[in-house]
Amino acid sequence: MSDELIESVKGRFLLAMPGLPDPNFSQTVTCMCEHNESGALGFIVNKVHPLLTGRELFEDLNIDCNASVDKLNIYLGGPVQPSGVFVLHGPPFAWNESLKVNDWLHLSNSRDILEAIAVQEGPKSFMIILGCAGWGPLQLDNELHDSAWLTCDLSKDLLFSTKPDVKYERAMMLIY
Questions:
Q1: Could you read off the pLDDT of 8-19 as tens digits, one per residue?
Q2: Neighbours of 89 (CB within 10 A)
Q3: In sequence order, which ranges of the chain are alpha helices (DSSP H)?
Q4: Are 133 and 79 contacting, i.e. CB atoms less than 8 angstroms apart?
Q5: C-alpha angle 103/107/113, rounded to 5°?
Q6: Which of 31, 32, 29 is nearest to 8 (CA)?
Q7: Which of 36, 69, 83, 99 has the most C-beta neighbours closer than 10 Å?
Q8: Which of 153, 143, 130 is nearest to 16 (CA)?
Q9: Beta-carbon contacts of residue 15 (< 8 Å; ≥ 6 apart)
Q10: Mean pLDDT across the stretch 131-154?
Q11: CB–CB of 129/75 below 8 Å?
């Protein structure tokens, strides 16, 4: 086990190695939003909730919404905080709670962005995600050192415009 931080993977995709035995991460593409000496935070971006609709989510949160939310995918971001609601999004970035991932991507989890999305006044590009993936101090570094993961650059197109069921394959192509 290493006791030092390897190069940060914040702002990169983390790809599960083929054959990774953990069912939470098998064939997943994870958008890494933070990675430092305190740990790491990411969101799986290619697993869609099989049952929950955008309308049901907004109704559960008591947020008024219009018909635009009926076809929204709700993603399963990971096994940590499974009821937490997060939004990966492009501009605008002036929401109450927002973490800059890179120049074109932020992570928010405040009610104001959800209320705006519910009535088509939010960011043009976004993903609503339940739960996240988290690693303790040096945990991800050790997993990377043990070759449990591959990494590649974030792609706006892959994140927001690619169908969930082909994101893993397309992300693997970004490595080469």
A1: 999 999 999 988
A2: 26
A3: 54-60, 111-118, 139-145, 156-161, 167-175
A4: yes
A5: 110
A6: 32
A7: 69
A8: 143
A9: 28, 29, 30, 149, 150, 151, 152, 168, 171, 172, 175
A10: 94
A11: yes
| C-alpha distance from residue 73 to each of 13, 47, 59 (Å) | 20, 10, 15
Give residue for tokens 């499974």.
Answer: 82
Residue 152 CA to residue 169 CA, distance in Å, equals: 12
Task: Check: CB of residue 77 under 8 Å from CB of residue 43.
Answer: yes
CA angle 93, 78, 127 (to 5 degrees): 35
What tokens were used for 30?
Answer: 């994870």
Which is nearest to 131 in space by CA: 101, 86, 88, 168?
86
- Measured CA to CA, the distance from residue 148 to residue 15 in angstroms comes to 9
Residue 151's closest CA among 5, 26, 29?
A: 29
Q: What is the pTM of this model?
A: 0.94
